[in-house]
């Protein structure tokens, strides 16, 4: 799953982008300031960074400069619509693209995917048992044949595929997916959705091999 670092201090933007980008199959990490962003960059590898110019401490230019100096990581700047200086400065520092605020989330996703393709960071196909999940196309193949999933089933599958070999608690799953379908998902309906997903992806839904129940803990994904 593609990892994105969002460096932004607007809580509303952080919340809305976190929800939307997760629905699109991205794994999002956030930082509110320059120091926190630099710390995040040391913790793990990312596939792309989204940088706001104005931060709680420092600015996005410094973060971009550090990124381009130390690593091969594409950068998209989030800029004010009338701030030509920020656009030019960001591109001069090596930014790969920019998008002006306010922006439409789907336009941002299109820009992200374009930059990932252009920089060779395009998301690879995820394999999980007999399944091939292509986040770029939003498609799922089982033994070479495409299967149809609802938005929430697809979100569940992406969550499972991104955590293979791990145990996911029911509370963790609910936190990740409860609002993706535009309706409330409680513990009982989660059971229904997992049952439906198993019926579509497992060879024997009564004896699942991919999405296994771990009594009292949640679900273990794969081996």
TrEMBL record:
Modification 4-aspartylphosphate occurs at: 52
Quote the InterPro entries the UniProt record gives.
Answer: CheY-like_superfamily, OmpR/PhoB-type_DNA-bd, Sig_transdc_resp-reg_receiver, WalR-like, WH-like_DNA-bd_sf
Q: A single Pfam family, by name?
A: Response_reg
Keyword terms: DNA-binding, Phosphoprotein, Transcription, Transcription regulation
Q: Keyword Transcription regulation: yes or no? A: yes
OmpR/PhoB-type domain location is 123-223
Indicate the segments forming the Response regulatory domain, all copies. 3-116
User: What Gene3D superfamilies does the database record attribute to this sequence?
Assistant: 3.40.50.2300, 6.10.250.690, Winged helix-like DNA-binding domain superfamily/Winged helix DNA-binding domain (1.10.10.10)
List the stretches of this chain annotated as a DNA-binding region: 123-223
SMART domains recorded: REC, Trans_reg_C
What the protein does? May play the central regulatory role in sporulation. It may be an element of the effector pathway responsible for the activation of sporulation genes in response to nutritional stress. Spo0A may act in concert with spo0H (a sigma factor) to control the expression of some genes that are critical to the sporulation process.
Q: What's the protein called, per UniProt? A: Stage 0 sporulation protein A homolog
- Species whose genome carries this gene: Brotonthovivens ammoniilytica
């Amino acid at each position: 799953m593609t990892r994105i670092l969002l460096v932004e201090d607007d809580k509303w933007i952080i919340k809305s982008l976190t929800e939307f980008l997760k629905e699109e199959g991205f794994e999002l990490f956030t930082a509110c300031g320059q120091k926190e962003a630099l710390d995040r960059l040391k913790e793990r590898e990312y596939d792309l960074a989204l940088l706001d110019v104005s931060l709680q401490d420092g600015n996005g230019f410094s973060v971009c400069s550090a990124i381009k100096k130390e690593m091969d990581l594409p950068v998209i700047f989030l800029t004010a619509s009338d701030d030509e200086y920020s656009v030019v400065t960001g591109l001069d520092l090596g930014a790969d693209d920019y998008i002006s605020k306010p922006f439409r989330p789907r336009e941002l996703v299109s820009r992200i995917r374009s930059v990932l393709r252009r920089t060779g960071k395009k998301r690879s196909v995820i394999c999980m048992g007999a399944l091939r999940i292509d986040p770029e196309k939003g498609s799922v193949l089982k033994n070479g044949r495409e299967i149809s999933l609802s938005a929430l089933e697809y979100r569940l599958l992406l969550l499972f595929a991104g955590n293979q070999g791990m145990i996911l608690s029911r509370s963790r799953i609910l936190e990740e997916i409860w609002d993706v379908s535009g309706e409330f998902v409680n513990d009982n309906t989660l059971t229904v959705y997992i049952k439906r997903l198993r019926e579509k992806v497992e060879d024997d839904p009564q004896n699942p091999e991919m999405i296994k129940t771990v009594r009292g803990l949640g679900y273990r994904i794969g081996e």
